[in-house]
Write a structure and sequence with these properties.
Length: 393
């Protein structure tokens, strides 16, 4: 049976970055990824990297293309009731900012580095069981190239996303999942048209929420709130652009249109599983927590988890001490719950719940007015959005 020090289930951003950090620290690990490389690299997801994520990628020697091609953003714009207000990240956070650089590009960069170092994930290796997490020698069972295989290890890390298998190794009675499902979804589009804004625009409107993001100076990425269960094919390009126009309405501003090259509906939920460690199994990224994308935290939380975990596993490898591993779950959950609260607040302030009253809407407007009028309220939003340092929560 093969053996590795750390078996990592899942080759998304969490698994790929954890593996990169561990290999650079001299800790042997193996990534098992059920999909093929092309699938993992083209999966369209997040677009915003907070300061701590960029710092971590630079530290891992994985930010060369990000620094060359990523778009540095010093703020975002909020729009509501005909008002517009810009949140100035560096001014409100002592210099922190965000980068527009798609998750697909982060994944491509990490895989290329692994290939060059001879540490590439085992692709098309689907894990179907994680055993012995309460022993000193867990075993991961998986299928690869049509054959059943087993990998023994010192620790297993579940980086297998929101529907992964690693979590199932934890007895139901030993874990608790907190969850909220939102009564709306996002219809996301990618369009071959230069963005109509320099920075992201988050809009609250009587028609519902809309977000103008981007992927490059020539490609726009936009989202609009739709009812749960919406079929993206029921939305023609014209209907999408008309609805976005209505939601971004602001005197003197126009939304440029272009051919839509991709569209998909993504549901919105919040979820946290505690603890993030059980015996020799640790959970990181979406395997442990989900946030609605309004706060652009999902990918960034996955990165902060693995930065904390890589330090703990390396410490144990070098000294035999497990105190950082013992503190892993508590250390991460403080940051996770802060990000959950921020994502929940951004989501419920900006979206129009189908059943909300006129009173509810006035509360949302009062909250947005407060952010525009109070540097304290604006700073709280800026700190959460641009991200607080990983080891300071
Ligand atoms: P991932 O889900 O990215 O990776 C898990 C990996 O594990 C996958 O490659 C999967 O194939 C593999 N895997 C699963 N089961 C396995 C098994 N049994 N054996 C082997 N491998 C297995 N976040 C934002 O900040 N902004 C956004 O706009 C945004 N949009 C999103 C849209 C969608 C549709 C989704 C699903 C998520 C979105 N997110 C967004 C959140 C997203 O970016 C995640 O936070 C991020 O992918 C988390 O990374 P990982 O934890 O690595 O999980
Ligand atoms: C994106 O560009 O995909 C994006 C940006 C900000 C968000 C969510 C998604 O809050």
């Amino acid at each position: 049976m093969d053996h590795t020090t750390v078996a990592i289930v899942g080759g998304g951003p969490a698994g790929l970055l954890l593996s990169r950090l561990l290999h650079r620290a001299g800790t042997d690990c193996t990534v098992l990824e059920r999909r093929d490389r092309a699938y993992v690299e083209r999966r369209q997801r997040a677009g915003i990297l907070e300061q701590s994520t960029v710092d971590a990628l630079r530290e891992a020697g994985a930010a060369e293309r990000l620094d060359a091609e990523g778009l540095v953003h010093d703020g975002v714009e909020l729009r509501w009731s005909g008002r517009s207000h810009r949140i100035d990240f560096p001014a409100l956070t002592g210099g922190r900012r965000v980068w527009v650089y798609a998750q697909t590009e982060v994944v491509k960069d990490l895989i290329a580095l692994h290939q060059a170092a001879g540490t590439a994930p085992r692709f098309e290796a689907e894990v179907h069981a994680v055993e012995g997490i309460d022993t000193g020698r867990p075993i991961v069972r998986y299928t690869h190239q049509g054959r059943e295989r087993a990998l023994s290890c010192d620790y297993v890390v579940g980086c297998d996303g929101s529907h992964g298998v690693a979590l199932k190794a934890v007895p139901v009675g030993a874990r608790r999942t907190y969850e909220r499902v939102y009564p709306y979804s996002w219809l996301g589009i990618t369009a071959d048209v230069p963005p109509s804004c320099e920075e992201l625009v988050y809009a609250h409107s009587p028609h519902g929420f809309a977000l103008h993001s981007m992927r490059s100076p020539r490609v726009s990425r936009l989202y609009l709130q739709v009812p749960n269960g919406t079929d993206p094919e029921a939305w023609t390009d014209e209907r999408i652009w008309d609805e976005l126009d209505a939601r971004f309405t602001l005197d003197g501003w126009t939304l440029d249109r272009g051919p839509i090259t991709a569209k998909a509906v993504l549901p919105m939920r919040s979820s946290v599983t505690e603890p993030m460690r059980f015996g020799r199994l640790l959970l990181a990224g979406d395997a442990a927590h989900i946030v609605p994308p309004t706060g652009a935290k999902g990918l960034n939380l996955a990165v902060s988890d693995v930065v904390v975990l890589a330090r703990a596993l390396t410490h144990r490898q070098r000294t035999g001490g497990t105190e950082l591993l013992d503190a892993y779950s508590g250390t991460c959950l403080r940051r996770v719950w802060r990000a959950e609260h921020f994502s929940y607040t951004m989501t419920t302030t900006l979206h129009t719940d189908p059943g909300q009253s006129a009173f509810d809407t006035r509360l949302q407007i009062a909250q947005l007015d407060r952010v525009a009028d109070s540097p304290h309220a604006a700073a709280e939003l800026a700190l959460n959005y641009a991200g607080i340092p990983v080891f300071s929560t």
